[in-house]
Amino acid sequence: xxxxxxxFGYGLLAYxxxxxxxxxGVGFLANSVxxxxxxxxxxxxxxxxxxxxxxxxLLLPLQHSLMARPGFKAMWTRLVPQVIERSMFVLIxxxxxxxxxxxxxxxxxxxxxxxxxxWRTLLVVIYLAGWGLxxxxxxxIDHFDLFGLRQVFFALRGQAYxxxxxxxxxxxxxxxxxxxxxxxxxxxxxxxMSQGRLLFAVVTTVYIFVGIRLEERDLLxxxxxxxxxxxxxxxxxxxxxxxxx
Length: 245
Description:
The chain has one domain (about 1-235). A two-stranded antiparallel sheet has the order 1-2. The protein has about 240 residues and is an all-alpha fold. The radius of gyration is 19 Å and the shape is globular. Helix content is about 65%, strand content about 5%.
């Protein structure tokens, strides 16, 4: 029982570090509310800023690409208990995001700046809608399983864990990756786009497409024709009738 309580405490710790790191990102990209926005801080060498920022941006994709692969999971769970495998993923992801926010070098030079209030308001609404799509989609596929709490809760109760059953509902009827679509919308919907935010948006968007391809390869291998059929009838990111994005 003590071990199960420790596992639950670890999962809870991972959750309270990982999930708030995403919420902080809402203010970080918008340069609003949070202590440090993406364009805040002393501006230094442009070359150093690009080098540091790209390095920070690549750490999270590398961690996701490695730890999300079935082969790595099989090896990793020989070293750590299966019940906290997802929590470890969430914890490391959260710590890498906090590191990015802390060490990000500002590149505040403007790429574009919309001055018309109506257009600025529209883009802010779209920006918040992107984050709303992301967070709401996480609950459609079981938010607490995605962030590792469901696994440790089952262990705490002494129940065998079973992955949640995917239900094709709401936005998942039209697109396969609404979480990633939400990220892309939030990254690009900027009434003021600085060089730093543009770098952030470009690097993360490229990885999203790479990550989707890797994930879909794993899903096809695991679910076979069921996922292949789902992929044929739904778009990747944009719900355009008759097209697969």
